[in-house]
Amino acid sequence: MGEALEVPPGQIRFLQDLGSKPVVADAAGIDVSLSHTRGFAACAVSQHGRIGVDVEAAARSVEIETLRESVFTNAERRMLDECAVNKRAERMVWLWTAKEALLKGCGRGLAIPPASIDLRWSDSGELAIAAFSEGREWKLVRFRVDEEFLGSLALERASAIEVRCFDNGKLRAGRRVADETLFDLSTREQGSAKSRLPEPPRSDGPAC
To answer: Which of 53, 59, 56, 63 is nearest to 21 (CA)?
Structure first.
């Protein structure tokens, strides 16, 4: 985030807006979103409109299953019941992270009931918005990290995304995402060396 804002990380100050969304002090036109789960944290920064991010452990599908009646629409539950068994748990987590990312992005949080957001899987495997009180023009981008974590980004304005993955402050993987709606990152060791993608070029797009 310090690089995106061109200030030392220690000088970044966070405030909260009325919806409790984190706001960077003295950074007009910058929108940020934060998410963390055990073993992984995500930070999204945008200079092109609102942005939201959510990440969960893939194994959390068991917990989300207990909430499906209250967080998913009837259509979403039918969709989950009808999909292949080997895809159901993953899709359930991605549905949840997409809803969370949208709620964080618009700044309303759980003031908007998750079940009021209706999402659909397209024939091409993309996740699309069927109903959302803040509008259907948001772009959803899903990501997977090391097969252990699943997450979603919600962007008010579609643009290229610069992604970097760090481990204890060291860059482990990075790439630029343009038109994809799903991308994978690996930070695991392969043989004797870490899987390390080239550092992506600087861009004006959102950073995750």
So the answer is: 53
- Picking from 72, 98, 107, 206, the residue whose alpha carbon sits closest to that of residue 153 is 98
pLDDT tens by residue, 139-194: 999 999 888 999 999 998 877 677 777 766 777 777 777 777 888 877 665 432 33
Contact 30, 10 (CB under 8 A): no
Q: For the residues of 116-156, what is the DSSP string, one character each?
A: G-EEEE-TTS-EEEEE-TT-S--EEEEEEETTTEEEEEEES
Whole-model pTM: value is: 0.82
Any idea which residue has 């100050």 for tokens?
13
Whether residue 51 contacts residue 44, with contact meaning beta carbons closer than 8 Å, is answered with yes
